[in-house]
Design goal:
This protein is of the alpha+beta class. The protein is 24% helix and 49% strand. The protein contains 5 helices and 17 strands. The chain has helices at 2-28, 33-76, 222-226, 254-265, 267-274; strands spanning 85-86, 90-109, 114-119, 122-131, 134-141, 154-161, 165-173, 178-184, 197-199, 202-214, 231-232, 236-252, 282-301, 304-322, 336-351, 355-370, 373-392. The strands form 2 sheets. Strands 2-4-5-6-7-10-12-13-14-15-16-17 form a 12-stranded antiparallel beta barrel. A two-stranded antiparallel ribbon has the order 1-11.
Length: 397
């Protein structure tokens, strides 16, 4: 590219000189026919070069506009009103976080039978490392450090934050340590003997991403509340819009549940439940959602922030299941419909730019329904963290 540019410049200078000579010679004499032909040839070349030059300038102008537009777009990611938001002054951060997680699955059948499963709340701890927009961490279940295989619960999170947009990638895998929290299998049936019993026949996993856009990003800082990468100095709120994609997988062992029902409630109850339209082996569904909500950051004292955010999403579900009963067709569990999902975020933060500490609570709700089957899944986390920023940026030294 550089060599071509040099050749073009050299050619342009040579022809320019030729054009200048042509004009000068024409003003002196054009009686020589041979010389006149040369002048006409030079004029033709000059015309071609002039058009080439104009066309090149137009192309450069267009490319320049694209480049400037792209630069402005990228720069807008962190375009903030510094009277409301104090920008991050450091390149790196380290943080220690304790996470307590909760999860609940409710399975509902057409005939009114329902089962609610939830494990005990789990406390996890782990380190996080951040570089500007990127925040990466790993937590482990400190109550089951020696567990392996199906009993191990895992969570991985990667977050990319700016003042204007945010992206969350996550993967959660539960173990097999659920408990039957509540059961409804008919009027007059006492289900208390099996409530809060351990149940190892349920396994689940969730993976996906959320992308959200902050409309009032110049004055409202979502990262100040949930990633501590900026500091909110004045109270402000903002509407939020976003999209999300998640993949849920749920496996269920009905033979294990049937055995519990027979032992604790009797054979008749177990047989009645076995005829339920709820029976399935594995269900996997994808959730596509478009959400809208509102968030507010309240600065009630210097370096202190109380934040709240609520979003409601219209979700499109695509589900595939493997049924145990032969009278269920594949079509029964390959349905497409719309449901409502929700996400709530709340935080209390202290941040003086160098050191920060706080708590946050994040709740997710996912739903999908069919006339003969539906599930409700709620999971969330309560976080307590303490961190330190270092590696001051050049512009703040």
């Amino acid at each position: 590219m550089r060599i071509a540019r040099y050749l073009y410049t050299l050619m342009f200078l040579v022809v320019s000189q030729a054009c200048g000579a042509s004009v000068y010679a024409d003003s002196v004499s054009c009686h020589d026919s041979t010389h006149a032909e040369k002048l006409l040839a030079n004029d033709a070349i000059c015309t071609d070069i002039e058009w080439m030059r104009r066309d090149t300038l137009k192309k450069e102008s267009f490319l320049g506009k694209v480049g400037k537009g792209l630069y402005r777009f990228i720069n807008e990611f962190n375009n903030i009103d510094t009277s409301y938001i104090e920008p991050q002054k450091y390149n790196f951060t380290v943080m220690l976080q304790n996470v307590t997680t909760y999860e609940m699955y409710k399975l509902n059948a057409e005939d009114g039978h329902s089962f609610t499963f939830a494990p005990d709340a789990m406390a996890k701890i782990g380190p996080y490392v951040g570089w500007r927009w990127v925040f990466l961490g790993y937590t482990v279940d400190i109550q089951h450090m020696s567990s392996s295989g199906d009993d191990l619960r895992k969570e991985y999170d990667i977050s990319l934050y700016s003042s204007m947009i945010g992206v969350d990638f996550y993967y959660r895998e539960t173990g097999s340590n659920y408990k039957l929290r509540s059961v409804s299998i008919g009027n007059g049936i006492d289900t208390s003997p099996i409530e809060d019993m351990g149940f190892g026949g349920l396994k689940s996993s969730i993976k996906g991403l959320n992308l959200y856009y902050i409309l009032n990003h110049r004055r409202f800082s979502y990262p100040a509340a949930f990633s501590q990468s900026t500091v909110q100095r004045k109270s402000a709120g903002s509407p939020l819009i976003g999209i999300g994609y998640t993949v849920h997988k749920l496996s269920f062992d009905w033979e294990e549940l049937n055995g519990i029902l027979q032992d604790k409630l009797g054979k008749d109850v177990a047989e009645a439940v076995a005829d339920s339209s709820l029976l399935f082996g594995t269900v996997k569904y994808s959730d596509f959602s478009v959400s809208a909500g509102y968030a507010y950051n309240w600065v009630f004292a210097r370096n202190w922030l109380l934040a709240g955010s609520m979003s409601l999403g219209l979700a499109y579900n695509r589900t595939v299941g493997d049924m145990e009963k032969t009278y269920f067709s594949f079509r029964d569990f390959s349905f497409r419909n719309f449901n409502l999902d929700g996400i709530g975020r709340f935080a209390l933060v202290w941040n003086n730019s160098r050191w920060y500490a706080g708590t946050s609570c994040i709740l997710h709700s996912y739903n999908y329904r069919k006339s003969r089957f539906s599930t409700n899944n709620v999971f969330g986390s309560f976080n307590i963290y303490f961190g330190y920023n270092f590696g001051k940026r050049k512009e703040y030294r």
